Amino acid sequence: MNVIVICPECGASVRTRENSFFGVGLAVHRYVRVCPDCTWTEFVLGAERETPPPEEDSTGWGAFLRSLVARTARASGKHR
């Protein structure tokens, strides 16, 4: 089951990827969440698998909804 995660910084769809540093030194998280539009990252605690890149939205609704989510997050004070 793929869970859609929205970036708290810019509102884009976040991808889950394998941590390239896993097993090296103190890196214990196998996966990380990475936003393709900004520099936001987060370690994944569970055993989620990589998510494919989201399909491009040709209607423009995706960009509109991402901007709406980002605007709402900023207005509510949850934007860092």
Per DSSP E runs of 2 or more residues, the count of β-strands stands at 3
Residue windows where pLDDT falls under 50 for at least 5 positions: none
* Cα separation of the termini: 29 Å
Number of domains: 1
Q: Mean pLDDT score, rounded?
A: 76
Q: What is Rg?
A: 14 Å
What is the global morphology? Answer: elongated
Please give the largest β-sheet.
3 strands, antiparallel
Give helix and strand order, one letter per element, not per position: EEEH
**Strand content of the residues, in percent?**
15-25%
Number of contiguous helices = 1
**Structural class computed from helices and strand pairing:** alpha+beta
Helix fraction? Answer: 10-25%
Looking across the biggest beta sheet, what order are the strands in?
A: 1-2-3
How would you portray this structure in words?
- This protein is an alpha+beta fold.
- It has one domain (15-75).
- Helix content is 19%, strand content 15%.
- Strand 2 and strand 3 form a beta hairpin.
- The protein is elongated.
- The mean pLDDT is 76.
Keywords:
alpha+beta, single chain, 80 residues, 1 helix, three-stranded antiparallel sheet, 3 strands
Please outline the helices and strands.
Layout: E1 15-18, E2 31-34, E3 41-44, H1 61-75
Antiparallel strand pairs: 1-2, 2-3
